[in-house]
Amino acid sequence: MGGFGRFLVKRSINMVIVLFATLVLTISLLGPTMDKILVDAIKFYVVEEINQKELQFQNLDERQTYINERVELQITTLGLDEPWYTPKRFTNTVLKVMVLDLGNSNYLTSDTGSPNVRDIILEKLPKTVLLFTTSTIITTIIGLYLGAFVANRAGSLWDRLNSAFAVFSGSFPIWWVGMLMIFAFAFTYAIFPSHSTPQTAPSDPSYVFDLLYHMSLPLITMVLVSFGSWAFMVRYFVVGILSEDYIFAKRAIGIPEKKILYSHALRNAAPPIVTIIALSLAASFGGAITVEAVFDWPGMGRLYYDAIGFLDIPIIIGLTYVSTLIFIVTVFVTDIAYAYFDPRVKVT
Amino acid sequence: MTVSAPHNVLSRHEIIREFSRSKSGLVGVAILLALIGVTIYSAVAIPLESFRQWNSPDFWIDLPRAAAPSWVNIGFGPKIPEHTVLYMKDATITSFEEGPLRAVIHSYNVNFNYDFYPSDFMFLYSARYGNTQPVLQVDIIRPDGKEFLIYFASLPSSQEKVNEFSARVFSTDRSIVENLREKESVFSYDQDPSRPQVMIFSDAQESKVLKGKYVIRMTFYLFDPQDSVQNSGIRLGGKVYGLAGTDELRRDLAVGILWGAPTALFIGFTVAIAAVLIGLIYGVFAGYKGKRTDEGLMRVSDVFYSLPALPILIILSVTVGRSIFLITGFLVIFGWVGMAKVSRSLALQLKNMQYVEAAKLMGQSDTNIIFKHIIPQLLPLTFASIAIAVPGAILGEAALSFLGLGDPSIPTWGQILHDANSAGAAARGLWWWIVPPGMMIAITGLAFALIGNALDSILNPRLKKI
């Protein structure tokens, strides 16, 4: 296990480096904007405070001096007098985010009213996971069976239809198909709601059903756009395996064709397919932004879209970090599982 | 999708011969040629001005709001009036003189064969004159021979010696309504002069549209030899317009969709070529050098592989800038990793080939070996990779534009869809605003995917049917 242990350590170090690099990149890009927004907010609150207390000043100059003093004081207390790139503040921000201490948002709050970025993200995360996992599972099942089906009939009309559909649906922007689906099935034929945010309160017992009903249109769209390429990919692996000698041997013994296809061939094609499933699921957050924006699905992608609109920097940093984290951990786990279960993978 | 390793090296002629046998590849090439044709057409036929003025509402003022494409009239259903805009160049111009008086007549012929009334109409004119004000008279000669004088007024007086005056007269103008009151007796039923667009285009006997050829005659009476008519025009408001209709801001969608083609091709090609070449050189260098260099370079590419592309693209366009060139650059940053991984693994195989070893023994430099002996072997793969990388780049830019973060000064397909989505085009049934731009994105992506897949299956015969 020495080799495997070294592999583990190497991969873990790699993972931390990638996370750190993402964070440094994100914070360096957003740092200047972040400071400007914070200082503006302080100024706003100081003026607001003066107006509320109805303080009297002899002239405008005196009022301005008072405001400046208060703003300076707050800036020093918050440590904003140093720019964001000083080692102290930079390491501080990076370390805080790395341990998921994401601070408070500037504008957006969670449904319960909490401004804590971690609370907001934890509230949205399950919804993105629900939608994308469900769609990936359905797509995978359809893809596996359809892929195996056409692989067995390579070169037939079904096979060619499937390949054509795969290439065709793969070039469609999913958010555009979403717009068409909303146009067709929410307005022309009012079957599904046009906005996917449920109207009932989360505490209501019927909330679950409402959520599932609102989920159906984005779900159908995602499955429709992606199952073709899935089937095409499964076909590619299964066709390769079906030409192996041991499959011919099984045929020669007289094992039923169906059993060979769905049990032997699919099982042997499974490792690469499982890897791709895991990676595509982990990477789906990127696509989640456009899909959730089109369907108004209350998940992380929608939150990211809103945060960009409001320039809510803490949320943007938090979401970017969390999505990178999810992706990297998934890659890590799949790599290890793959290396552990498939000895052919070179452990280097 | 990445391209896997070639199993055997094919010559250029073999690849071209194989490619010309691949139906899907030829379809891809045909679509690509059509898109290039569209690009050339839009560069030649559409005035560059309409492209630059895409986001200025004044430029599109004469077009209808949210009008369907005019080809919806093809078929047997009722015909919806087409939006018609005619300028001086479309008019028949005659003039006659009577002593000091000179009359310049601009007459416009309009074939009105639709089943609905126009939604409104408008005249525009522009004249240059001195102290004596010209008079403008507008008559409409209907297909049934009846002549309606609808407008007779002098142009505003000028203070200066020479004055150019331009104005628009809308169908809601009070004097048009007043003039039409005298024509109520023409109709055998009640007509409402406050809706001139209905009254003028109505049958005299029953309440329906009078179809046929209308002549709209704008007569300018000029009293000074120095005076002249600079321009004139008429606009008949309709519900359908042009090849692709118009959007909420009256923009001609055909212009946006046609101009989208060069932009998409530019982004697709630039990003794909730059990213694939960077990935190729990076990967080959890492693979050839091996050891520590390889290890270090691969760690760097792992970082890029794990970065969430769209979120970081969004951050970049918000903080750094969103010009088309910047966006192209950002897309390259995320595009090269796949190619780097593939070309590294191939370089690992190639560097142990005898001819590479021989070149090394002969004392050739590393750069020389990489560029002269290894990279040429990978050129077919490079072309396939470029073709396969193009749709990703186009989709990436479209997604950014769709989120409202694209270059605001250029019409792109993603941006048209962004505008459609924020104007609620789906809810309002404005399908012509949603379907064509997305179709163009899909077709462009499809062309490159077909070419790329065809090349790929030539290089990897295993992909083909057994």
Write a structural description.
The complex is a heterodimer of chains A (348) and B (466). By secondary structure, chain A is mainly alpha-helical. Chain A folds into 2 domains: 3-98; 117-311, MetI-like fold. Chain A has helices at residues 2-53, 60-78, 87-98, 117-152, 157-170, 174-188, 207-242, 245-253, 257-295, 300-310, 313-341. The longest helix of chain A has 52 residues, at 2-53. Chain B has 466 residues and is α+β, with helices and mostly antiparallel strands. Chain B is 47% helix and 17% strand. In chain B, helix 2 (23-45) packs across helix 15 (431-459), helix 6 packs parallel to helix 9 (324-335) and helix 11 (354-361) runs antiparallel to helix 12. Chain B is elongated, with a radius of gyration of 32 Å. In chain B, 42% of the residues are buried. The interface between A and B is large, with 57 and 49 residues.
* Extended strand count of chain A: 0
- How many strand elements of chain B? 9
Could you list the spans of chain A in which at least 5 consecutive residues all have pLDDT below 50?
none
CATH architecture of the largest domain in chain B: Orthogonal Bundle
Number of helices of chain B: 15
Provide the low-confidence segments of chain B as ranges: 1-7
> Structural class, judged by helices and strands of chain B?
alpha+beta
Using the alpha-carbon principal axes, give the shape of chain A. Answer: elongated
Mean pLDDT of chain B: 84
Q: Round the Cα radius of gyration of chain B to an integer and report it.
A: 32 Å
Task: Tell me the series of helices and strands of chain B, N- to C-terminal.
Answer: HHHEEEEEEEHHEEHHHHHHHHHH
Strand content of chain B: 15-25%
How far apart the termini of chain A lie comes to: 13 Å
Structural class of chain A: mainly alpha
- What count of domains describes the coordinates of chain A? 2
Q: Can you tell me the CATH class of the largest domain in chain A?
A: Mainly Alpha
Largest sheet of chain B: 5 strands, antiparallel
N-to-C CA distance of chain B: 21 Å
What is the number of helices of chain A? 11
